[in-house]
Amino acid sequence: MSIQSRIDEKIRTHFAPTHLELANESHRHAVPPGSESHFRLLLVSARFDGLSPLARHRAVNACLAEELAAGVHALSLHTYSPAEWLTRQTQAPEAPPCLGGSKAEH
């Protein structure tokens, strides 16, 4: 099973999202083709009601601790309660472009 599939399955099981977008953005970074090291997660869940952004991120990181320890280098998180998601008009910020950082360049 791919890392992306494992992340998707764990998030769906743990957070019962009303909206979920998981994108492998590794191709935008200085990694070999086919890598699964950089992800963007947009997650809307009632489990986030009343939680601070930091508490939400900690909850996601705890859920994905195994993947983060085993090769996921970056995980961009956009976490919202259903009410917050509606006020954002169902749009999350775009990820900024990669500015390099290849180990081969250093």
Notable traits:
single chain; 106 residues; alpha+beta; GMP Synthetase, Chain A, domain 3; three-stranded mixed β-sheet; 4 helices
User: Which CATH architecture would you pick?
Assistant: 2-Layer Sandwich
Termini separation comes to 33 Å
The largest pleated sheet is described as: 3 strands, mixed
For the largest sheet, list the strands in their spatial order. Answer: 1-2-3
Structural class: alpha+beta
Number of helices: 4
The CATH class, by name, is Alpha Beta
Order of helices and strands: HEEHHEH
Q: Can you tell me about this structure?
A:
The structure is a single chain. With 106 residues, the protein is of the alpha+beta class. The chain has one domain: GMP Synthetase, Chain A, domain 3, CATH 3.30.300. It is 33% helix and 19% strand. The chain has four helices and three strands, in the order H-E-E-H-H-E-H. The protein has a three-stranded mixed beta sheet. It is globular, with a radius of gyration of 14 Å. The N and C termini lie far apart (33 Å).
